[in-house]
Design goal:
Layout: H1 8-43, H2 62-72, H3 78-83
Length: about 110
């Protein structure tokens, strides 16, 4: 079996190739990150978009118009109902109790 000894020039070329690949990967990673950030910044302006739909009643029947107006001018909206809470439903979490015992220490978690 014959072993091939590497010449110093071959080793130097291999190390130079490895350094250039490492530098290329680092530069490519930085440029990719910058490009991704630029695309993200350009595509998102920072504001949420909402759409509002309105319904127009075009009927001569005044009862239908009154019913439509009553349904749109109620006193509270669904968002108001969700934001207000009933204090009678809230309960305080009881404080943990501590006790001292003599003997070996024992720690347990969960379980039944």
């Amino acid at each position: 079996m014959t072993s091939h000894r590497r010449l110093p020039a071959e080793r130097d070329r291999a190390v130079a190739r490895l350094h250039s690949l490492t530098r290329g990967a680092a530069v490519g990673g930085v440029l990719g990150t910058l490009l991704f950030g630029a695309v993200a910044a350009a595509s998102y302006d920072g504001t949420a978009t909402t759409t509002t739909t309105t319904t127009t009643v075009t009927s001569d029947d005044s009862a239908a118009q009154v019913a439509a107006e009553d349904s749109t001018t109620s006193g509270t909206t669904a968002a108001d109902d969700e934001s207000s809470t009933d204090d009678s439903q809230l309960q305080a979490t009881p404080a943990p109790t501590t006790s001292t015992t003599s003997g070996a220490a024992h720690a347990s978690t969960g379980g039944s």
